[in-house]
């Protein structure tokens, strides 16, 4: 099963060449990089999720993906500069998530 992830990643990257503005495909690519889990893949996932949030700041899927990617990167040995960026992104993601969910009816469950 794990051998299929790089193949799936290749297919999604090929699909993205045909529709470069498709944020759904970008999210799938980011999730596949996250699933592969090596530090290099996590850095790529962080870039994809961040780009999606630049285009759609309310994209909850990308928010959660970026949060878990940043948490995974924090457990890796990152260079100081990269670790600082990851920490800032994580803080931003948590702030945006609270903002999004505070406008939702289920805000009582968030606290």
What labels would you give this structure?
6 helices, disordered C terminus
Helix content: over 70%
- SS-derived structural category: mainly alpha
Instruction: Categorize the overall geometry.
Output: globular
Uncertain segments? 107-111
**Based on DSSP secondary structure assignment, what is the total number of beta strands?**
0
Q: Can you count the helices?
A: 6
Q: What is the CA-based Rg, rounded?
A: 15 Å
Strand content: under 5%
What does the average pLDDT come to?
89
Q: Write down the secondary-structure element order.
A: HHHHHH
Beginning-to-end CA distance, first to last residue? 38 Å
How is the biggest beta sheet arranged?
Answer: none
Question: What does the secondary structure layout of this molecule look like, with pairings?
Answer:
Elements: H1 4-18, H2 23-36, H3 39-55, H4 60-75, H5 80-102, H6 107-110
Q: How is this structure best summarized?
A:
The chain is mainly alpha-helical and 111 residues long.
Structure, explained:
It is a single chain. The chain has helices at 4-18, 23-36, 39-55, 60-75, 80-102, 107-110. By secondary structure, the chain is mainly alpha-helical. Helix 1 runs antiparallel to helix 2 (23-36), helix 2 (23-36) runs antiparallel to helix 3 (39-55) and helix 2 (23-36) packs parallel to helix 4. The longest helix is centred in the last third of the chain and has 23 residues, at 80-102. It is globular. The chain starts with a helix and ends with a helix.
